[in-house]
């Protein structure tokens, strides 16, 4: 179904229309300096398309929550755990509800983690729920920065990965990214490069004007026009907008943001007792802290003498400062939490980042003592737990298998250990469906590619017996699996169904 939405007025008074169905397939990038009208443009787009498509707005400033009263959007307060946000996002896709993720009040790192969890939940939704969704991300440079900033590296990687999935792989899952940024130079290139539609607003820096002109296929001498654009005026290009650069003026909107541009207003008349109003504390103010006079300066000779004295050794504490942690109790608690996670049939198809957040929450609930596992340590323990054997048991053969698994990427260690465990027990070779589930996929073809990769690395040898059953031999371990049919159903799923 072809739906054209009215974005405003184009050249010579013609209507500026946007093909909504084409937009869902080709994505949109909006650039403009602060005050150029980006938020107004996004609001116009959201209001015009609200009756036709489900919407999800990532709102770092809380400006778009006003859409709720007029158009029925649900406001999701981001002050929740990341696991909870991921589950909410899955239900949003299932029930096709338009939402505004309100990130107001969170610091930058918390905003990045919350947005990553929510976008990850929408991206990982089940195939039956891949309905079209317009995902609008305001101030996208916060969530997909071109360079590392002051936030933790892990938070930046999570957020950047979520934005990359949205723009690069979201189309097949029905997710159409609309991202707005103040400067293209601040936005990660692999995120910006996936947009095929552009709306360029007022820009002053030479480098940003040149990049905008390049994206629109304009001569660099024409880039000066971006300095002269008025507020709410943009240059459009793309299959959903126009095949040639087209100046447009964004139309009016029905709702308004909670915050707006500052307006000049006359100052009140200066009171005669202005000094008393400023310097006299109000009755409800906290008691003022009296500043102490600065200490008397120490003579240089005395200071040098103090520095030259040997520092006395600290007395040993009578008892440990921190409580002694029982490592056996800690390992038992971690194993119990991992078993709880793996008992969930959906855990196999969740990313490690989502499972790690669930692990941290469950560890706090169970009061697992000591510092929580790092993400890399969690991935290792999870891979061993999926194989069904403790890392510190299993004999010399299993210790050799653990050593071989460390040469593989983190996401492949669990699959390798599962196959190696079957070989050490002389159990039937796992089927393609079982291997795919262990990798977090529904594709048997991917499972066969994993075995081919292991064979290329010289870790195992795949052979077929006379009954077309598969046998996996491990030369370094000196053992092999019993014959197993590659097309057999996934055992845990079959048991759960029964």
UniProtKB/TrEMBL annotation:
Residues 16-110 form the Helicase HerA central domain. Residues 487-498 have a biased composition (Basic and acidic residues). It holds the Pfam family DUF87. InterPro entries: ATPase_Atu1862_pred (IPR014588), HerA-like (IPR008571), HerA_central (IPR002789), P-loop_NTPase (IPR027417). It comes from the Bacteria. Residues 477-498 are annotated as: Disordered. This is Helicase HerA central domain-containing protein. It comes from Mesorhizobium australicum. The lineage of its organism: Bacteria, Pseudomonadati, Pseudomonadota, Alphaproteobacteria, Hyphomicrobiales.
């Amino acid at each position: 179904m072809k739906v054209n939405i009215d974005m405003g007025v184009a050249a010579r008074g013609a209507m500026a229309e946007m093909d909504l169905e084409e937009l869902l397939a080709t994505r949109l990038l909006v650039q403009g300096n602060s005050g150029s009208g980006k938020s107004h443009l996004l609001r116009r787009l959201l209001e015009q398309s609200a009756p036709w498509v489900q919407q999800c707005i990532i709102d770092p400033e809380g400006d778009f929550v006003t859409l709720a009263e007029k158009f029925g959007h649900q406001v999701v307060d981001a002050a929740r755990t990341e696991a909870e946000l991921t589950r909410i996002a899955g239900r949003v896709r299932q029930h096709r509800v338009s939402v505004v993720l309100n990130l107001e009040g969170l610091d930058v790192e918390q905003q990045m983690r919350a947005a990553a969890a929510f976008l990850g939940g929408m991206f990982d939704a089940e195939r039956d729920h891949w309905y079209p969704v317009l995902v609008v991300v305001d101030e996208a440079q916060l969530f997909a920065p071109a360079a590392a900033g002051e936030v933790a590296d892990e938070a930046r990687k999570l957020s950047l990965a979520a934005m990359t999935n949205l723009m690069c792989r979201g189309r097949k899952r029905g997710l159409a990214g609309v991202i707005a940024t103040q400067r293209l130079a601040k936005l990660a290139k692999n995120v910006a490069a996936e947009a095929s539609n552009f709306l360029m607003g007022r820009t002053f820096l030479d480098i940003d004007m040149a990049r905008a002109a390049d994206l629109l296929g304009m001569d660099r001498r024409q880039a000066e026009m971006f300095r002269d654009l008025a507020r709410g005026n943009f240059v459009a290009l793309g299959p959903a907008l126009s095949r040639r650069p087209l100046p447009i003026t964004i139309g009016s909107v029905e709702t308004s943001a909670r915050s707006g541009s500052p307006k000049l207003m006359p100052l009140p008349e200066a009171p005669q007792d202005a000094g008393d109003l400023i310097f006299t504390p109000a009755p409800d103010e906290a008691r003022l802290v009296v500043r102490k006079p600065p200490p008397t300066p120490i003579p240089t000779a005395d200071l040098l003498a103090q520095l030259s004295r040997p520092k006395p050794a600290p007395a040993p504490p009578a008892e440990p400062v921190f409580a002694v942690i029982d490592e056996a109790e800690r390992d038992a608690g971690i194993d119990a939490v991992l078993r709880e996670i793996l008992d969930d049939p959906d855990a196999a198809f969740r990313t490690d980042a989502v499972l790690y957040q669930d692990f941290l929450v469950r560890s706090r609930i169970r009061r697992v003592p000591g510092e929580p596992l790092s993400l890399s340590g969690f991935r290792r323990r999870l891979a061993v737990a999926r194989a069904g054997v403790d890392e510190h048991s299993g004999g010399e053969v299993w210790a050799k298998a653990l050593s071989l698994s460390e040469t593989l990427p983190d996401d492949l260690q669990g699959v390798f250990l599962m196959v190696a465990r079957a070989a050490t027990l002389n159990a039937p070779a796992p089927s393609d469906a079982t291997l795919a589930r262990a990798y977090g996929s529904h594709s048997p073809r991917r499972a066969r590619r994993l075995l081919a990769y292991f064979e290329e690395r010289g870790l195992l040898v795949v052979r077929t017996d006379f009954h077309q059953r598969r046998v996996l031999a491990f030369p370094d371990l000196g053992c092999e699996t019993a014959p197993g049919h590659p097309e057999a159903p996934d055992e845990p799923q079959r048991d759960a169904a029964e």
